[in-house]
Amino acid sequence: MAAKNLGATKHRARFHTLTVSDVRQLTADSVEVTFAVPEELRGSFDYAPGQHLALRATIDGHELRRSYSICRPPSVDSTGAGSISVAIKRDLGGVFSSWANTELTVGQQLEVMSPQGTFTSTLDDLDDTHIVGIAAGSGITPLMSLAHTVLAASATSRFTLVYTNRTALDVMFLDELADLKDRYPARLALYHVLSREQRSSSLLTGRIDEDKFRRMLQTILRPGTVDEWFLCGPFELVQLCRDTLADVGVETNRVRFELFTTGETNRASGDTGRPVTVAAGDKTFQIEFTLDGQSNTVTTPVNANESILNAALRVRPDVPFACAGGVCGTCRAKLVSGDVTMTENYALEPDEIERGYVLTCQSHPTTEKVVVDYDV
User: Which of 10, 35, 112, 369 is 20 to 30 Å from 57 by CA-CA measure?
Assistant: First the structure.
């Protein structure tokens, strides 16, 4: 049976109010949160495995937005209603993740954005394919949905998962991974790598550095057999894997990656735009943007080096964004006219950039007038 393309489902980035139907402890510092999706919103929450949700909540009087990957395949019950689940791991000092792990309960309502993201398979047919996922910590979340879907879609597809954590107690979805292995013993290869516990093999013990990853490529992964690669974790691990794969001849269009941290400690937090004042006599850029068919214009001082997103938020608080760090891609828009510089980009594919798309959270005007369109 030929499997259909699992590419990203495109939605207008819009928040909807959903009710929490379940909160399940995964590890000591992570939970799975499930939202009920009423029948009338099912179309808005269709998704491809690998996509993510942006959540919005007011905590201690401050609006916070954070993005979390969807961890389960699509589910619909007999009434036509559905559910959608994300995993949230507590970050050190993370206000939203700490609140979700300790305070979020069944029955609460949150603002949830329609699914976004392109960390999805581009293969048209999964028959006889081999997909490899490499994850660290909470990077397993999108790969759970992807592995379930790929293995169920074709009787001849294979999935290899290398999952690294500090200890066995830190492994998220431990039971689900074991069940998946039992269900597909011949087609799922599962390798747990623990950095602070001794395993039976040196290949599965310690941090994944370049030497260890090259040994994996020579033994358990074998790039010549792999059709698509999915990397999800901290910047250092993802970049190491990308560089090494390129060095051994793997084509870049076969490697998909997603970050849950860029390693930059001073990046924007993704809460709200910072205040900027335009004083009389300031040299300014003019930013025009279209959102939901409505055009707005805002000016920004040249010396403020303000991002398009930050400027737009001063006149339209409903402008879509989540991480504000160039990682999630929620703030994506098309550059219609003018020029910008993008500080960082961990979300857009090369073909999207060629077609004129930019991350507005990272884009700074370099011409007197810049026009972007969120609706394209």
Answer: 10
